[in-house]
Amino acid sequence: MNSTANTAAKPAKTVLISGASVAGPALALQLHRYGFTPTVVERAPELRTGGYKVDIRGTAIEVCRRMGILDEIRAKSTDMRGGSYVDDAGRTIGELPADIFGGRVEEDDELMRGDLARILYERTRDNVEYLFDDSIAALAEDADGVTVTFDSGTVRRFDLVVGADGLHSNTRKLAFGPEERFKRHLGAYISIFTAPNHLGLDRWETYHAIPKKLLCVYSSSGETDAKNLFIFSAPEDVPYDLRDVADQKRLLADTFAGDGWEVPRLLEHAADADDFYLDSMSLVEMDRWSRGRVVLLGDAAHCSSPASGQGTGLALTGAYVLAGELARAGGDHTVAFARYEERMRPGVEQNQKMAEGFVKEMTVDSKWKIALRMFMVRTLPKTPWKNLIAKKIRDGIQAAANAVPIEDYTAPTGTPAAPHPTVTA
Ligand SMILES: Cc1cc2nc3c(=O)[nH]c(=O)nc-3n(C[C@H](O)[C@H](O)[C@H](O)COP(=O)(O)OP(=O)(O)OC[C@H]3O[C@@H](n4cnc5c(N)ncnc54)[C@H](O)[C@@H]3O)c2cc1C
């Protein structure tokens, strides 16, 4: 008789996480607390600190509090004062205060993506093994674990593998199949890069609309440079090599060639930027997020595109729920993965739906529609129903931000999870 036939699989202990941005290090933080041994592999040679400002709202704020990182997040607040739309000549057309833009609102914490990635990395680096400049080349699962072959040639065993490697997830490709099966382009591209703050902005966003395009330049609290955001609509995937940064920069320059305002100067800065980011605004839609001992987290599982403003919050919440469920199930991944997905999925779908609507609103396709939008921007703050409209927008966003209910995994119903440490500043 086979002596192992009736033996339950041993509880998972070692977890390989692919991706050291937001979801990956957040999961590592929680798993380490619960007694697991996480290892994080990141393709980039060092922590990537680029990116625009990201929002943490609703449930995600409570998640950060429980992770013990909320005070650090608040210390890095962008502290935005508001923003304005400008015309071709740089003249202000209309202003919007911070309570419409976010940033200073009670129920919305906002910081730079790079600052958040750094906070999570600093919190974990002493207790978690990080493997930079490497990537998973192959996964071979058996009854007891997963044999992982890395690009570097190293071969190691892990109990579980988590793909937290973003929209173009390598783990998803290896375990579930090609990206095209799961990625749905929403009809727009986004580019972000850092450049000198030549407009002298102080915690202020400056928007400029062009048919089918939108630009935003801003500088947040404590930043000497400015962030530059370019959005353009493109109904189909573009014929550029988006794995090649030089080709991405060419795409941006070709798309905005001949446009006015500060565009020529900003494109010059784009050419020199070393944190240049360009990607399609896409959703990742999957029937399931786990297969055997492999599970996906954050954008890898359910990217809602930057338009939702919820990708980071969902990545943090997902990390909290996945770690909590693994702890509660005593490392039984079959139970934990199912519960994680069950808890996250309805809220994720609500946010993805919202993102689709937002992408359509980001750009408008003609000059007269821009003029109409500018008329509304100018008149809205003077109307008696200004607060009503702002409240309606905020309520919609808050509902989506609270769409994933979280449990207190410090009071588990199953196998006990270790208590959270005291939250420190
Ligand atoms: C440099 C950068 C800038 C960004 N800027 C913005 C922004 O301005 N606005 C916005 O809304 N969102 C931005 N995002 C996306 C945003 O961070 C995510 O939507 C959200 O925070 C969810 O995070 P995530 O950890 O699931 O995925 P991501 O933040 O996309 O992180 C995925 C991580 O996996 C790594 N990775 C990719 N492939 C591999 C591989 N083969 N092996 C190992 N690691 C791999 C990536 O380098 C990255 O560190 C940015 C992401 C990055 C990486």
Automatic annotation (TrEMBL):
PANTHER family attached to this UniProt entry: MONOOXYGENASE, OXIDOREDUCTASE-RELATED
Annotated InterPro entries: FAD-bd (IPR002938), FAD/NAD-bd_sf (IPR036188), FAD_aromatic-hydroxylase (IPR051704)
GO molecular-function terms, A-Z: FAD binding
Pfam hit, one: FAD_binding_3
Record-given protein name: FAD-dependent oxidoreductase
Organism: Streptomyces gardneri
Ranges where the FAD-binding domain occurs: 14-329
